[in-house]
Amino acid sequence: MARPRTPIGTFGKISHRKISKGHCEARARYRDWDGKLRAVQCTGATQAAAELALKRKLAERSLFQPGFVSLSADSKFSALVDYWLEDMEVEDRLSRTTRLLYERNMRTLVAPAFSELTLREIGVARCDYFLKQLAKQSYNRARQARVVLRLALGLAVRHEAITRNPMDHVSRLRRPARTPDAFEDSDIALIREAVRAWEGRPIVAGPRPDGQLGQVVEVLLGTSVRIGEVLAIRIRDLDLRSTIPTVKIAGTIISRKGEPTHRQDHPKTSRSVRKIALPAFAVRAIKARLRKRLSIDPDALLFCNRGGGALTTNNVRRRLRDVMEKAGLTGVTPHRFRRTGATAINNAGGIDLAAELLGHTDPRITAQHYIVRDDLVNPATARMLEERYGGTA
Fold first, then answer.
1. Domains of the chain (ranges plus CATH)?
2. Which end of the chain is more exposed for a tag (fewer CB within 10 A), N or C?
């Protein structure tokens, strides 16, 4: 019968020998992570000192092995979180914005409930109960927590700390019924009037509005793009001299904690890079902005602060909300313009064209989250029923 091999990360019997007066050697065979047995030795003034030095050296051998070997089923969840965050940084597959979002969701939503538990104590029932309780407070929080919890535990499975991912067997979260909302034509007229009134109001002190808010609204309505993508438009992205004026959507505005607001050279997804034909009202707004934009640098932002730097999306949202509330209008957000445009294009040209405009790879996302459903059944049904049964009344 074959003799069982020494497990990886362990050592065999320690042997001793005296080298010279006042010098002893302790030696053992250690099985490294690659499966090879290697002789490791240390010396000391005495046999005990040499053995102690050898054991310390063997304990440090883990520094030469992949860091995850320190994870086991008895490791705390907090140790897994630290390694998971480090792994995301090293892998560098996700954008920095996504990594920061995942870290925030992990530390604020998941860690408070799991940090002191060992990995073997985190099972399907515990994960399922946690997500259901969180979903009672907020579906979106539960969804975000589910993502990071699955990723972290998946890493533990891949590194053999646990045998299966309990998140594979939790029950599905039930999305609350929600109907996408879009502006009616009358709402658009009221919004435009409110912005014109605010920009044309008498100014007692401070700088006069430069018209950017109204122009941003027109571009949002004329392109159906995200607010960060509107604010990231550069002069070089505009082609207003062609027969069909266009704008290229090729970036977005990023604001991270501890970093200055800046333009990112790509939008949310690769499919989001696209050229959009501009309606005449959006062209007029852009030309009005260009007349006030003194910079001729092609990389200069179309919309910017007084120093030429990027506007933050939060500030634009806040300003729009304040202006609308003063006019008695509620629920006016930049993203609602996106749903409004998608609904209008869907009604006129179909769901595929609406998805192309929004930069979606899957029209089902467009239909589920951006299109306001028309609940009017085709009136042809009334004619058909009349032809069949009207003569018998």
1. 15-65 (no CATH), 70-169 (1.10.150.130), 185-356+365-369 (1.10.443.10)
2. N
